[in-house]
Description:
With about 280 residues, the chain is mainly alpha-helical. Helices cover about 55% and strands about 5% of the residues. The protein contains 10 helices and 5 strands, in the order E-E-H-E-H-H-E-E-H-H-H-H-H-H-H. The protein has a 3-stranded antiparallel beta sheet with strand order 3-5-4. About 35% of the residues are buried. Belongs to the AfsR/DnrI/RedD regulatory family.
Amino acid sequence: MPKIEFCVLGPLQLGDEGRRVHLRSSRQQVVLAALLLSANRMVPVESLITAVWDDHPPDGARHQIHNCVWMLRRRLRDIGVAEAEITGYPAGYAIHLSEWRLDAAVFERRLGEARGLAAMGQVTLAAARLRSALSLWQGPPLSGVPGRIMQREAVQLTERRLSAQEDWIDLEIALGRSAEVTAELYRLIAEQPYRERPRAQLMLALHRSGRTAEALATYRQTRRLYIDELGLEPSPLLKDLEQAILRGDRSLWHTSSVQPPLRHGALGAGYPLDASGATA
């Protein structure tokens, strides 16, 4: 299998694992990141100009983009990744490379494989494939790459990571590993305090681990946070879960998730699943 040579799931880097390098030029960073995020598709020069200078391009911006691409081509040759060819078109540029050379593309492929495995009820393999996908992340995506466009792309990539983590946790809970994922859930909640899905997962994981009092305390803390800081009550997802825990609903011991089939997560598989991997 070809080695990953371009990384955006963390600092922007190029080269194989033994000789990863950073681009010093912020302009080159933005142009390369824009090309990688649309790999094998033409990116108009105007889009590259906006990515580099937002709404305030200088005179001669097109010429500067052309020079930037020329320097990027030379840089790629210097570090031995010439297989990734930057092709010029009348209206823009495209970088052509196998999906295995870009970490974000490998991440998406592994998510797709996990989706297929979960749909077939192979929960253990699906969870392992998601762990493999998440292992590609090296920090905040595109960290250090400037510009409003790159910040927006970073937010979208981060959302993909969070959804994949939450999907992985659903599968781990289905496999009876509730106690093992509680630390990860506390970390996720600290990172994203207003996301409800990890809080629901934490309540379920604590309850399944014999820590029902802590599960109910998590709901009370969440409700207080949402009311104090957002002026909102928790959604029915959390309210219904609290009530199910209070009444000792036995179905909570046979399902991996307290929410309907995933609509926005990376898996999109039919949920809930029981611990054996069959749909409940």
